[in-house]
Write a structure and sequence with these properties.
Arc Repressor Mutant, subunit A; elongated; 11 helices; mainly alpha; 205 residues; Tetracycline Repressor, domain 2; TetR family transcriptional regulator
């Protein structure tokens, strides 16, 4: 029986590269962490759902926390890449703040599993890794703060502290992961645009 199970596992993963397998582990772990929670999900659960052996998981990740870190780190990588592209792109500061807010919300809602894990489970990382995440998060909040300050300077945005404005805008955007319904009447793109319009109208002159 054990040999038959191993054969099935090998046949399901044959032809995959190491990067493919690592990505598959992250994808399945993300879904399980959202469904069951980080504490309840074991590496055995992840291996069983994929069809791997548990030692195969350990080949790519030394611990379950390493898997969680890969998930949350990937979220920040994606956010930073998109934020910098928008911040350095065309448009006035106010237009780029709007675009950043839309993109921030859209990214959350298009990838609900990973972002739900990010916001619900990241506090379970080690203090060292949580400190690293906070440092990287500050990088993209500073991008929006800088643009908001430019919008204030040119008279485009309301003169409030950029740190307060950024925390309010991003905080309201983040909360959408709790109530957005992927099967609902509005798409992720439509919700993202409406959130940005609603929030920024309160800040525009």
């Amino acid at each position: 029986m054990a040999k038959a199970t191993t054969g099935r596992r090998q046949s399901r993963t044959r032809g995959q590269t190491g990067n493919d397998r690592r990505a598959q582990i992250i994808e399945v772990a993300t879904a399980l962490f959202r469904e069951k929670g980080y504490h309840v999900t074991s590496l055995d659960d992840i291996a069983d759902r994929i069809g791997f052996t548990k030692p195969a998981i350990y080949y790519y990740f030394k611990s379950k926390e390493d898997v969680l870190f890969a998930i949350v780190n990937g979220i920040v990588d994606e956010a930073l890449e998109r934020f910098h592209a928008i911040a350095e792109g065309p448009g006035s500061p106010g237009e780029r703040v709007h675009a950043l807010l839309v993109e921030h919300t859209r990214t959350i809602l298009r990838n609900l599993d990973a972002n739900t894990v990010f916001y619900n489970e990241r506090g379970l990382l080690s203090p060292e890794r949580e400190k690293e995440m906070r440092k990287r998060e500050r990088e993209y909040t500073e991008v929006m703060q800088r643009l908001y300050a430019e919008g204030v300077a040119n008279g485009e945005l309301l003169d409030v502290d950029p740190a307060v404005a950024t925390a309010t805008l991003l905080g309201a955007s983040i909360w959408s992961y709790r109530w957005f319904d992927p099967e609902g009447r509005l798409s992720a793109d439509e919700v993202a645009e409406q959130i940005a319009k609603l929030l920024l109208n309160g800040y525009r002159r």
